[in-house]
Design brief:
The structure holds five protein chains of five kinds.
Chain A (H helix, E strand, L loop, with lengths): L2 H31 L3 H23 L21 H32 L4 H9 L29
Helix pairs in contact in A: 1-2, 2-3
Chain D lengths: L1 H20 L3 H21 L3 H25 L13
Chain E lengths: L9 H16 L4 H25 L5 E4 L10 E4 L1 H16 L8 H20 L3 H19 L5 H32 L4 H11 L3 H18 L7 H8 L2 H25 L4 H23 L4 H21 L2 H28 L10 H4 L1 H15 L5 H16 L2 H28 L12 H19 L1 H15 L2 H8 L5
Classes of the chains: A mainly alpha, B mainly alpha, C mainly alpha, D mainly alpha, E mainly alpha.
């Protein structure tokens, strides 16, 4: 490779790794510093994207072709196909987890009436004796942790 | 091959199962008596084998788990404690065989746990290596817990406290045996005894501290003593007497085994503490001195008869360990003999106190008095018991204490001797409080109809007191048993004869002492009864004081705050620092618990992940190889 | 920790994280990855699997088991979401049907998306794309009508049927080779000519199964989020 | 190509920051989709067409819709409060 | 190839197939679906058993798809894997979900949990392990929320957020390993590790992997989900999660330690984490206010013990880890069975012994075993653990001291409960146990007692499994016969 190409590769590497790290960091910031669980979920999506970028960047080689054989020519240099396969898997896994999280989020909002992590944590950490009824939904005299009847909670 | 030891253990096991199954039966006490008597006979047979020249009687029982072999065998030392155990079990069962048994709501638990304790102790004293020693130790601890906790309420609280102490001790012990194994490559006693002189000093110290602390908890050496008195006192009568008489002595057994038999007093004396005059042995000796004094004066302050005696038990343990740690044949014999003697008189005392409790429903020393007229035989038992406890002739306690004092003198330890005397002084004062507040003085109105304890309870009490007298009169009887134990320790035997011991600088012959004493009493009686008998009997209330006639509703029996002057003198010393330490530890655990729990209640849990990753990567950057 | 204190702490730790991760990543050989396994796969994949798209060859051949796990995760997520939402209430969802334009667009898009999805799935071993991408497009095809009229629920039982059979097909194809004494998921049916539609043996079959399964699972998942309460 | 990648990265980071700081959740979800799309462009530039396609179809498309639906379903689309900043 | 190598895939694939078919089968009745699920779990027990007896010291290896080792994915079935396949299936069988907690969907998730867990312990490929880890994780998120309990959703969501972030860390770790070594096959990584992964990159990868897998393995500080989830999930789910699933993540960490990361720095990192985990768990349990949380925290501490055992060098550590893990897998689910009925503050348990003597007695037995009182199995597990620690000396001795101190705290909180149970009831009496409520716990209690009686042969068998699991050389030789 020419010195120019090497320099380009170096800057490319910095840009990609830097971008991946910043994406991860911003995502974690959203998860850690924000109180709304929806925002936490968005942060999670960002973190997963950042990790995917990192993985693809690992397999990259400058001046190499995409890992698809065109016209039976097999001896051109190709980028590493393995991380790409991994990232494909990781993307789909990410969507699955995100979908489940969304489902849980909907139920959390429905049950507690809030998406604030502080409120949720307060409810979860409540001592069994004085479990505070969440968001005023429980009627006095009923056990605080009654099972929510299917379809009847609002 | 089923040997004597196997028979003994199987019999103990069958007794446990049997008494648990038939424990509610009204003959359970007799079944127990028969079983313990049979066990005692077997133990005596084992003793004959041992005195016949065998070093140990092996058991056929042996397991190998995960490459660790476990064996059981009984040697002289174990035999001595086994005899105490089965004997104490026999008397406890006897006590429980009649009226006491009828009155108890939880007969099955009482009989079952007693048998379980006997079994556990037999297993412990016959352990053949450190692993089986630890297993036996744990079983003994938990069996005692089962016995203590049975009445619930304050008993459960006290038992829980005991349990935590015992478990902390057991964990120290666990660490100790594992260090022994990694240092010597096996759990075997012989390997340890062979390897210990060559171990690094640090290892020796670690082992010494771990074993002393671990076994010392059971012995209730200060500062590990807080649990014992309440735990023993809130246990039902016969069980409590059993615990008082022999349970804590398991710690003594194990300490003797490890410190004297395996490590040896010379080795301990060689472990100097830098910048002080102390070495491992003398430091422990002074700890026992504190154990003799402090609990005895705490006993003085008790208002519950059971607590008073139980606190004495702690102090008496100090005497035994003192004698054993002196390390000469005389001291060892004194310590071991004191163990035997203590078992006889302490059990008699506890049984007598519980007989009083059985009749009057209280053990509060402020609520009793004058029972000598109602329960004279119980009074005699108690009197003989406290003479033994105080270490006065003609009872056996005198002989063993004399031997311990003598061994201290012979090894030039006058300060320890003074400490022992201070302890004895406290003992005498407090046992007087015991007998005065219960039996002397004014009989309370509500106790006027109290009857003497039933025969089923009186007989074991009187028998025990009798044994105490006989072995005080002819200490050679007990000393020949001590011989067997001593022969297993490798320190040498203390020559003795039926009446006591002969030493170059002063001998003791109890045959003479008792003879002179009886003669003197006889002379006194002669003078009293025949030469000038001016006495006549009057009722307690046919009397006057300060110009007023006394009536039954006026309390002139002085029992509350019995030693006010003494309390003022020792009060400033009585700070309860150990109690404060215990509370501090509890608070510390609670605070740490709240801190840990708070970690888990944090609203933003991913934050921890962030912190952990950042700090972890920092650590990787700092310490990882580049 | 409250308010800005936590924000500050988070930022501090994040700054540390960024600096250290950057240092860590910079140490990696960018653009010169060792490619131990990657190079070997590139050189052997055409011969061993007959797939022109090497990523496909990896996804279905070398790492076919990962892919099975992957569709399983979607399945797990769909099942779990169904479980969680089975008792859900109506939420804030407006019940009014979507506008006419959305409806018309949905009707118009439907055949186009289905065909596109099928094409991408079937050419997965030749060109970029495959079961996942095509499946996602198929899912969109079935899902967009749902947006247009939320009251007409997706036919979950059909979706479940497709899903179940597709998943079963994947495993049965894998197990088939097991019966012939080969390892699980060994490709069979011959390799064909590199670059042909009917090449790469059983891989396109697997991709078809994956496409159907992913499509039905994703559609089902989305539909559950949209739908209102109750079991289907 | 370098400049294209840098441009895409910058767009991506900007969109990511918007995700965190936009008050409207629907807009934040849109920003996440933009991140994914920028990522897809980067993947395409990095010779990873399969991944690019998947990122565009699955991550940008489907999960964007999914998140948007969730926002709608939880009622967050009506208000932008509740993020801890009062 | 050892006999049965080809069937290595069956413990993963058959439950998976069943899970795919279950929604279809359920059309003919939920009972049929339930029966099918249970049959498949029983089959898995059988498969685990056959694998155990088929492999001696030589593990069974199969290259999936016929693609040889470093290129394709391999399954590596040694006795350790066989053991956990069987244990997981047994756990799922005993704690098969009730119809009222999710019905067919819960059956499906449980089957998937079994499939994923089996894959987790059998797989010999780093990324494949991640995929199965995700299956297990997602299935447990779903099951955690399946009680319909109010707390369930919030707990599951917080669990999910933490778990997903952890998974991202794992993925970064895998990326680092791949970037350094260029391969994902564990044996291949093991071969290259001394050269490629001994530096900072390897250590950082280890940190990320441990923290990521640590979410499931309940390591501090990523275990904050534990008390919430265990308190809110249905008892049967809690029992499986605490009893078995957490150990599967430990098995992964074990494989990583044995094969790849021998670095003393890595070991000391894990040891520090383990010690903090133990301390935090036991102390938090001391102040916990109800049984469920007490056991949740206690479970954290026990997994800290397992992690500590893993750091102990050579076979002794692995044997200790397996022993502690197995013992905990028997004891803790039984505890949760009791806690499921005795909810609410601890003070309300007074009188429990009168109402439910069997449960109270079982509680004592379990408590004794978990504290480690001879001759119960818990003692032998602790003996191996502490023996190994003292043999290793140095920092391990300190760790052992921490364990011993923590044991006292453990006894304090467990026997405080025992004392409470035996007190006379103050107000409302604690719940009564129907036989069916208690039967899983009784079964586990019987297993415990039987294990006590057969502790010597069990110990020998586990020693064999540990020895072969500790043998990195034979792992590489079996998976990569041509590349040594």
């Amino acid at each position: 490779m020419s010195p120019d190409a090497l320099l380009v590769a170096e800057y490319l590497g910095r840009a990609l790794y830097g971008g991946a790290i910043l994406l991860i960091a911003i995502g974690i910031y959203a998860m850690v510093a924000r109180y709304n669980l929806m925002r936490v979920l968005l942060g999670l999506a960002l973190v997963e994207s950042g990790v995917n970028l990192f993985l693809v960047a690992i397999g990259f080689r400058p001046e190499a072709a995409a890992p698809i054989i065109v016209g039976g020519v097999t001896d051109v240099p190709m980028v590493d196909p393995l991380p790409q396969a991994l990232v494909l898997t990781a993307i789909v896994i990410g969507v699955g987890v995100l979908a489940l999280a969304a489902a849980l989020l909907i139920r959390v909002k429905e049950t507690y009436g809030t998406l604030d992590t502080r409120e949720v944590a307060k409810f979860l950490a409540a001592e069994p004796a004085d479990a505070a009824p969440a968001a005023g939904t429980a009627v006095a005299g009923t056990p605080a942790r009654e099972t929510v009847n299917a379809g009847s909670a609002s | 091959m089923i040997g004597l030891l196997d028979t003994l253990l199987v019999l103990a096991l069958l007794t446990t199962v049997g008494l648990y199954v038939f424990g509610a039966n009204r003959f359970a006490g007799y079944i127990g008596m028969a079983a313990y008597a049979a066990m005692t006979v077997i133990v005596v047979l084992v003793g004959q084998t041992l005195s016949g020249g065998e070093t140990a009687v092996p058991s056929a029982m042996a397991f190998t788990v995960l490459g660790y072999p476990m064996t059981w065998r009984i040697d002289g030392l174990g035999w001595f404690f086994a005899l105490l155990t089965t004997g104490a079990g026999f008397f406890a069962a006897w006590y429980m065989s009649g009226e006491w048994n009828e009155a108890q709501p939880n007969k099955r638990i009482q009989h079952g746990t007693l048998a379980l304790n006997v079994l556990a102790m037999l297993l412990l004293v016959s352990s053949g290596d450190f692993l089986s020693l630890f297993i036996g130790w744990e079983i003994v601890s938990w069996a005692a817990f089962a016995m203590m906790t049975q009445l619930g309420g304050p008993a459960a609280t006290a038992a829980l406290r005991y349990l935590l102490y015992a478990l902390a001790g057991a964990m120290a012990l666990f660490a100790g045996i594992l260090i022994v194994r990694s240092a010597t490559g096996s759990f075997a006693f012989e390997d340890f005894a062979a390897a210990v002189p060559n171990l690094p000093t640090a290892t020796k110290w670690v082992l010494f501290v771990l074993f002393t602390a671990g076994f010392g908890v059971k012995m209730a050496i200060v500062p590990f003593h807080l649990w014992q008195a309440p735990a023993y006192s809130f246990t039902p009568g016969a069980s409590s007497s059993f615990l008082n008489a022999v349970s804590a002595r398991m710690g003594l057994f194990a300490l003797t085994l490890v410190l004297i038999k395996l490590m040896g007093p010379a080795l301990l004396a060689g472990m100097d503490i830098a910048y002080t005059w102390f070495d491992a042995r003398s430091a422990l000796l002074w700890l026992t001195a504190i154990t003799m004094i402090v609990p005895t004066y705490i006993a003085l302050m008790q208002t519950d008869a059971r607590m008073l005696l139980a606190w004495h038990g702690i102090g008496q343990g100090g005497y035994m360990l003192l004698g054993i740690l002196v390390g000469t044949p005389l001291g060892l014999a004194g310590g071991l003999l004191h163990t035997f003697n203590y078992a006889t008189y302490q059990m008699a005392l506890m049984l007598a106190v519980f007989a009083v409790v059985h009749r009057t429903k209280t053990a509060d020393l402020d609520e009793l008095g004058g029972l000598i007229t109602r329960m004279p035989f119980t009074y005699i038992t108690l009197l003989m018991g406290i003479i033994g406890l105080a270490g006065l002739p003609p009872m056996n306690g005198f002989v063993s204490k004399w031997m311990i004092y003598k061994s201290l003198l012979n090894t030039a330890q006058p300060l320890l001797l003074i400490a022992a005397f201070i302890g004895t002084l406290g003992t005498i004062l407090s046992v007087y409080k015991l007998i005065h507040n219960i039996f002397l003085g004014q009989l309370r109105l509500e106790h006027r109809e109290v009857k003497e304890a039933p025969l089923s309870m009186l007989l074991p009490m009187l028998t025990l007191a009798g044994i105490g007298f006989v072995t005080g009169w002819m200490p050679g009887l007990a000393l020949s048993m001590v011989d067997i134990a001593q022969s297993a320790l490798g320190i040498g035997l203390q020559p003795h004869h039926l009446g006591g011991v002969d030493l170059p600088n002063g001998s003791l012959n109890m045959l003479w002492v008792v003879g002179v004493l009886i003669a003197a009493i006889g002379v006194g009686a002669l003078i009293f009864y025949f030469l000038g008998n001016r006495r006549w009997e009057v009722s307690q209330y046919d009397n006057y004081a300060g110009g007023h006639f006394l009536s039954a509703d006026v309390r002139y029996h002085f029992s509350h705050e019995f030693y006010p002057g003494l309390a003022r003198v020792i009060g400033p010393w009585y700070r309860g620092w150990v109690v404060k330490m215990e509370r501090g530890l509890q608070t510390l655990v609670a605070v740490l618990g709240d801190l840990s729990g708070g970690v888990f209640r944090f609203a933003h849990t991913p934050f921890y992940l962030l912190v952990a990753v950042s700090l972890g990567l920092l650590w990787v950057g700092l310490f990882g190889k580049i | 920790m409250h308010g800005y204190g936590r924000t500050t702490a988070s930022l501090l730790f994040l700054a540390g994280l960024v600096v250290m991760l950057y240092a860590l990543f910079q140490a990696l050989p960018f653009g010169a990855a060792p490619m131990q396994v990657g190079q070997e796969i590139v050189s052997r994949a055409p011969g061993e699997t007959g797939a022109a798209n090497i990523v496909t060859a990896i996804l279905l051949g070398y790492r076919g088991f990962d892919t099975l796990g992957e569709v399983t995760i979607l399945f797990v997520a769909a099942t779990a979401a169904g479980l969680i939402l089975s008792g859900a209430g109506a939420g804030d969802l407006p019940k009014a049907p979507g506008g006419f334009i959305l409806k018309a667009a949905a009707d118009l898009l439907f055949p186009f998306l289905v065909v596109l999805g099928a094409y991408i799935i079937l050419h997965g071993h030749l060109t970029p794309g495959g079961g996942f991408q095509g499946g996602a497009i198929m899912a969109a095809a079935f899902f967009i009508p749902l947006l247009a009229s939320p009251t007409s629920p997706l036919n979950h039982s059909t979706a479940a049927l497709v899903e179940g059979f597709a998943g079963t097909a994947f495993i049965v194809i894998g197990l088939a080779s097991l019966m012939w004494g080969e390892a699980f998921l060994t490709p069979f049916l011959g390799k064909g000519t590199l670059g042909d539609l009917f090449s790469a043996g059983s891989l396109p079959l697997l991709y078809l199964a994956i496409g159907l399964k992913v499509g039905s699972e994703l559609a089902g998942l989305m539909a559950r989020i949209v739908e209102v309460g109750g079991k289907s | 190509m370098l400049w294209l990648v840098i441009l895409a990265v910058v767009v991506m980071i900007a969109a990511a920051l918007l995700t965190v700081f936009l008050r409207s959740y629907l807009a934040a979800v849109a920003a996440v989709s933009v991140v994914s799309l920028a990522l897809a462009v980067i993947f395409a530039l990095l010779r990873a067409p399969d991944v690019a396609l998947a990122e565009a179809a699955v991550a940008a498309g489907l999960s964007g819709v999914l998140l948007a639906l969730t926002v709608r379903r939880t009622g967050l689309w009506r208000s932008d409060a509740g993020d801890g900043k009062k | 190839m050892t006999s049965g190598a080809n069937t290595l895939v069956l413990p993963i694939v058959l439950p998976l197939l069943g899970a795919f078919l279950l929604p279809l089968v359920a059309r003919f009745g939920d009972g049929l679906a339930r029966a099918l699920g249970i049959v498949l779990v029983v089959v898995n027990i059988f498969l685990g058993w056959t694998l155990w007896s088929a492999v001696g010291t030589e593990a069974a290896v199969t290259a999936l798809g016929g693609f040889e080792a470093p290129l394709g994915i391999v399954l590596y079935g040694d006795r350790l894997a066989a053991l956990f396949v069987a244990v997981l299936a047994v756990g799922a069988l005993i704690f098969w979900p009730r119809a009222e907690h999710g019905g067919v969907k819960a059956y499906t998730l449980t089957l998937l949990l079994v499939a994923g867990g089996s894959g987790l312990v059998l797989s010999g490929d780093l990324f494949n392990i991640f995929v199965f880890y995700e299956i297990v994780a997602v299935a447990s998120y779903g099951l955690a929320a399946s009680s319909g309990d109010k707390a369930g959703f919030g707990a599951a969501l917080r669990y999910l957020v933490l778990g997903a972030l952890g998974s991202s860390l794992v993925l970064i770790g895998i990326g680092l390993v791949y970037a350094a070594a260029g391969t994902l096959n564990l044996a291949d990584i093991a071969r290259l590790a001394p050269e490629k992964l001994s530096g900072t990159t390897g250590l950082a990868a280890f940190l990320l992997l441990v923290l990521g897998f640590g979410v499931k393995a309940e390591l501090f500080p990523v275990n904050t989900w534990v008390p919430e989830v265990y308190a809110a999930a249905p008892m049967r789910v809690t029992a499986i999660l605490a009893g078995v699933v957490s150990k599967l993540a430990m098995v992964v960490i074990l494989r990583l330690l044995v094969l790849v990361f021998h670095d003393p720095a890595a070991i000391s990192l894990l040891m520090a984490v383990a010690i903090v985990t133990i301390v935090a768990g036991e102390f938090a349990a001391y102040r916990a206010s109800d049984l469920n949380r007490t056991f949740a925290y206690s479970s954290i501490a026990q997994l800290g013990l397992v992690a500590l055992a893993l750091t102990i060098p050579a076979t002794a550590g692995i044997l200790a880890a397996i022993a502690v893990a197995l013992h905990h897998a028997v004891v803790k689910p039984a505890f949760f069975v009791i806690a499921a009925k005795w909810r609410g503050p601890l003070a309300g348990l007074a009188g429990g012994a009168r109402v439910a003597p069997a449960a109270a007695g079982l509680f004592v037995l379990l408590a004794l075993s978990i504290i480690g009182i001879p001759p119960l199995p818990g003692f032998w597990a602790k003996l191996v653990l502490l023996g190994g620690a003292f043999d290793a000396g140095g920092a391990y001795a300190f760790a052992a001291a921490v364990v011993l101190a923590a044991t006292v705290v453990e006894a304090a909180y467990l026997f405080r409960v025992v004392a409470r149970i035996w007190q006379p009831a103050a107000g409302a009496k604690p719940a009564h146990f129907a036989f069916s409520d208690l039967s899983p716990a009784l079964l586990l209690g019987v297993i415990l007692i039987v294990a006590t009686l057969f502790v010597a042969p069990i110990g020998t068998a586990l020693s064999g499994a540990a020895a072969s699991a500790a043998d990195a050389g034979s792992y590489v030789a079996r998976v990569l016969p041509g590349r040594m």
